[in-house]
Amino acid sequence: QVQPVESGGGWVQAGGSLRLSCAASGIIFSPNAMGWYRQAPGKQRELVATIGTAGNTNYADSVKGRFTISRDNAKNTVFLQMNSLKPEDTAVYYCNAVVGIRAIMNWGQGTQVTVSS
Fold first, then answer.
1. Other beta carbons less than 10 A from residue 41's beta carbon
2. DSSP state of 62
3. What is the torsion angle, in degrees rounded to the nearest 10, for the CA atoms of residue 92, residue 17, residue 64 and residue 89?
4. CA neighbor of 18 nearest in space, from 27, 10, 28, 26
5. pLDDT at 49
């Protein structure tokens, strides 16, 4: 099964920063936009940021100005730099290839981000 591998999560105090990484198969990564999703306890998974093959980006309003998505096409890796973290950012973060807003790969394990107040 082809699925992404996320890393970089952890515990941080409010106002802190974390950088998430996600490695994916080049067959899926190269021709597709990539996105970061998150799922908080008791809530549905939501799309927080996407980056197209040309580097064009989009963000959910809740993270705009604080999170930055980027990709390294040579390493088939996508990143999420998260600054000014808030307790409401606490969630398991996942990456996936995206068509529209739809994820097209099997989900990976995700990486837990916990922000304390």
1. 7
2. T
3. 30
4. 10
5. 97
Q: Give the position of tokens 């996105």.
A: 35
Give the type of residue at 3. Q
Mean pLDDT, residues 108-112: 97
Examine the pLDDT at 14 and tell me if it is beyond 80: yes
The token pair that represents 99 in the structure block: 């068509």
* CA-closest candidate to residue 95, choices 81, 78, 116, 113: 78
pLDDT band at 65 (very low <50, low <70, confident <90, very high): very high
The b/e string for 90-104 (b: 16+ C-beta within 10 A; e otherwise) is bbbbbbbbbeeeebe
* Number of helical H runs and strand E runs in the chain: 1, 11
pLDDT beyond 90 at 101: no
The answer to whether residue 42 scores a pLDDT higher than 70 is yes
Four-CA torsion 3, 46, 89, 112, nearest 10 degrees: -20
Residue 31 CA to residue 53 CA, distance in Å, equals: 7
Q: Are 32 and 52 in contact (CB under 8 A)?
A: no
